[in-house]
Amino acid sequence: MPTMITDECVNCGACLLSCPNDGISKGQHKVLLDATLCTECVGFFSSERCAAVCPIEGACVADPENVETEEALFARAVRIHARAPKPPILSPKTSHFRAADAPSWWQRLVPSLTNPRQEVVEVEDA
Ligand code: SF4
Ligand code: SF4
């Protein structure tokens, strides 16, 4: 559950339909992100979709207090989509942990910082 919506959010709604887990909903002053449904898009996309579509810098960001492994995030995705016709899969196209050209938010927002996620990840060959 590492993604969070900050007070920078202008409630534009651009991210509402971006989540593969339906984890984002309308709110009064900013959108609401259900952290229990966030998988950093692991299992479906090579980067975090809500952040990718967000036009406001700093509105939709990784939670530095809550770093999770690919294993934990994928397990959540499998659980959420247990009955879905198209289950999540792991590949360079469906996990930012494996996509060499998909820097995480940490690196996009603060390029000088080490990405703490990558310290707990073993990158496998495609
Ligand atoms: S990072 Fe992906 S799974 Fe998490 S809230 Fe955003 S769109 Fe949904
Ligand atoms: S796209 Fe960004 S600014 Fe717009 S509602 Fe989502 S988090 Fe807020």
Topology, please?
Elements: E1 3-5, E2 24-25, E3 32-33, H1 49-53, E4 60-62, H2 70-80, H3 105-109
Antiparallel strand pairs: 1-4, 2-3
One iron/sulfur cluster (SF4) binds next to helix 1.
Task: Describe the 3D structure.
The chain has 126 residues and is of the alpha+beta class. It has a single domain, classed as Alpha-Beta Plaits (2-Layer Sandwich). It has 3 helices and 4 strands; from the N terminus they run E-E-E-H-E-H-H. The strands form 2 sheets. A two-stranded antiparallel ribbon has the order 1-4. Strands 2-3 form a two-stranded antiparallel sheet. It is globular and about 35 Å long. 33% of the residues are buried. About 7% of the residues have low confidence.
What keyword list fits this structure?
binds iron/sulfur cluster; two-stranded antiparallel ribbon; alpha+beta; about 130 residues; about 15% helix; globular; Alpha-Beta Plaits
Task: Tell me roughly what share of residues is in helical segments.
Answer: 10-25%
Report the count of strand segments: 4
Strand order of the largest sheet: 1-4
What is the tally of helical segments?
3
CATH A-level architecture: 2-Layer Sandwich
Instruction: List cofactors, ions and other ligands.
Output: iron/sulfur cluster
CATH topology: Alpha-Beta Plaits
Cα-atom Rg, whole angstroms? 14 Å
Spatial gap, N to C terminus? 25 Å
Q: Runs with pLDDT <50, length 5+? A: 114-122
- Assembly level: single chain
